[in-house]
Fold:
Amino acid sequence: MSAERKRSLSIAGHRTSISLEDEFWEALKEIAALQGQPVSALVVEVDSSRGELNLSSALRLHALAHYRQLAARQRTDADP
Structure:
């Protein structure tokens, strides 16, 4: 896994920096593309529902949940 990379985005009218590993940035890009939205919109969506979690953790967990759901669907589709 790569080192964390910091990116700056605007969320709710203010600039913020988010540190994530490149693999998570790539996962978020893939998820956003599947949803037909830019990564910044996905970040805003996750930010609005993250509760007490810090944003970087919430984004990692969002990516993990997405790929877990995908894996579960693939297992279900493979069952005879």
Observations:
- The radius of gyration is 14 Å.
- The mean pLDDT is 92.
- The first strand starts at residue 4 and ends at 11.
